Protein backbone atom coordinates (compact mmCIF):
# COMPACT_ATOMS: atom_id res chain seq x y z
CA UNK A 1 0.00 0.00 0.00
CA UNK A 2 1.97 3.01 -1.25
CA UNK A 3 1.52 6.22 0.68
CA UNK A 4 2.03 9.86 -0.17
CA UNK A 5 2.05 11.01 3.45
CA UNK A 6 4.95 10.92 5.89
CA UNK A 7 5.04 7.48 7.46
CA UNK A 8 4.07 7.21 11.12
CA UNK A 9 4.21 6.94 13.92
CA UNK A 10 3.57 10.59 14.67
CA UNK A 11 3.40 12.35 18.02
CA UNK A 12 2.09 15.68 19.21
CA UNK A 13 4.00 18.13 21.36
CA UNK A 14 1.99 18.59 24.58
CA UNK A 15 3.32 22.13 24.97
CA UNK A 16 2.17 23.31 21.56
CA UNK A 17 -0.32 22.07 18.96
CA UNK A 18 2.37 20.65 16.65
CA UNK A 19 2.62 17.14 15.20
CA UNK A 20 6.06 15.58 14.62
CA UNK A 21 7.38 12.22 13.54
CA UNK A 22 7.98 10.10 16.64
CA UNK A 23 11.71 10.72 16.40
CA UNK A 24 11.09 14.50 16.48
CA UNK A 25 13.00 15.01 13.23
CA UNK A 26 10.17 15.92 10.85
CA UNK A 27 7.42 18.44 11.49
CA UNK A 28 4.12 17.14 10.11
CA UNK A 29 1.78 20.02 10.88
CA UNK A 30 0.95 22.83 13.24
CA UNK A 31 -2.66 23.25 14.29
CA UNK A 32 -3.86 26.79 13.65
CA UNK A 33 -4.69 28.81 16.71
CA UNK A 34 -8.39 28.80 17.35
CA UNK A 35 -10.01 32.17 17.95
CA UNK A 36 -9.96 33.69 21.38
CA UNK A 37 -13.38 33.65 23.04
CA UNK A 38 -14.06 35.88 26.03
CA UNK A 39 -10.33 36.57 26.36
CA UNK A 40 -9.30 32.89 26.35
CA UNK A 41 -8.01 30.61 23.61
CA UNK A 42 -9.42 27.14 23.23
CA UNK A 43 -6.13 25.40 24.08
CA UNK A 44 -7.83 22.14 25.06
CA UNK A 45 -9.55 21.87 21.65
CA UNK A 46 -6.28 22.65 19.85
CA UNK A 47 -4.53 19.91 21.83
CA UNK A 48 -7.37 17.44 21.17
CA UNK A 49 -7.11 18.18 17.44
CA UNK A 50 -3.35 17.67 17.55
CA UNK A 51 -3.72 14.33 19.38
CA UNK A 52 -6.28 13.10 16.85
CA UNK A 53 -4.14 14.08 13.87
CA UNK A 54 -1.03 12.55 15.44
CA UNK A 55 -2.64 9.09 15.51
CA UNK A 56 -3.80 9.26 11.88
CA UNK A 57 -1.17 6.77 10.63
CA UNK A 58 -2.21 4.19 13.25
CA UNK A 59 -5.89 4.74 12.46
CA UNK A 60 -5.20 4.22 8.75
CA UNK A 61 -3.32 0.99 9.48
CA UNK A 62 -6.19 -0.15 11.71
CA UNK A 63 -8.61 0.46 8.82
CA UNK A 64 -6.45 -1.64 6.49
CA UNK A 65 -6.24 -4.45 9.07
CA UNK A 66 -9.97 -4.38 9.79
CA UNK A 67 -10.76 -4.42 6.06
CA UNK A 68 -8.54 -7.47 5.57
CA UNK A 69 -10.09 -9.28 8.53
CA UNK A 70 -13.61 -8.45 7.35
CA UNK A 71 -12.76 -9.86 3.92
CA UNK A 72 -11.65 -13.10 5.52
CA UNK A 73 -14.81 -13.33 7.62
CA UNK A 74 -17.09 -12.56 4.65
CA UNK A 75 -15.33 -15.30 2.65
CA UNK A 76 -16.28 -17.91 5.25
CA UNK A 77 -18.99 -20.28 4.05
CA UNK A 78 -20.83 -20.32 7.39
CA UNK A 79 -21.62 -16.58 7.58
CA UNK A 80 -25.34 -16.00 7.05
CA UNK A 81 -26.67 -13.46 4.54
CA UNK A 82 -27.68 -10.83 7.12
CA UNK A 83 -24.26 -10.97 8.76
CA UNK A 84 -22.54 -10.90 5.38
CA UNK A 85 -24.49 -7.75 4.38
CA UNK A 86 -23.60 -6.07 7.67
CA UNK A 87 -19.91 -6.92 7.27
CA UNK A 88 -19.90 -5.71 3.67
CA UNK A 89 -21.45 -2.41 4.84
CA UNK A 90 -18.71 -2.05 7.46
CA UNK A 91 -16.15 -2.78 4.75
CA UNK A 92 -17.69 -0.06 2.59
CA UNK A 93 -17.26 2.43 5.46
CA UNK A 94 -13.64 1.35 5.90
CA UNK A 95 -13.01 1.71 2.15
CA UNK A 96 -14.52 5.21 2.21
CA UNK A 97 -12.27 6.24 5.11
CA UNK A 98 -9.18 4.73 3.46
CA UNK A 99 -9.97 6.44 0.15
CA UNK A 100 -10.53 9.78 1.89
CA UNK A 101 -7.17 9.46 3.65
CA UNK A 102 -5.17 8.29 0.65
CA UNK A 103 -6.69 9.95 -2.44
Summarize the structure.
The protein has 103 residues and is mainly alpha-helical. Helix content is 52%, strand content 12%. A three-stranded antiparallel beta sheet has the order 1-2-3, with helices on one face.
Description of the molecule:
With 103 residues, the chain is mainly α. The chain has two domains: 45 residues, no CATH class; 45 residues. 52% of the residues lie in helices and 12% in strands. The protein has a three-stranded antiparallel beta sheet with strand order 1-2-3, covered by helices on one side. Strand 1 and strand 2 form a beta hairpin. The longest helix has 22 residues. The chain is elongated, with a radius of gyration of 18 Å. The model has no long low-confidence stretch (mean pLDDT 84).
Helices and strands in order, then pairings?
Layout: E1 10-13, E2 18-21, E3 27-30, H1 43-54, H2 56-75, H3 81-102
Antiparallel strand pairs: 1-2, 2-3
Helix pairs in contact: 2-3
Amino acid sequence: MPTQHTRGPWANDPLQPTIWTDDGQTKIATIADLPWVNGKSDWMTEQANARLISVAPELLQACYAAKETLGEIVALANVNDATRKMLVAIGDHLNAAINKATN
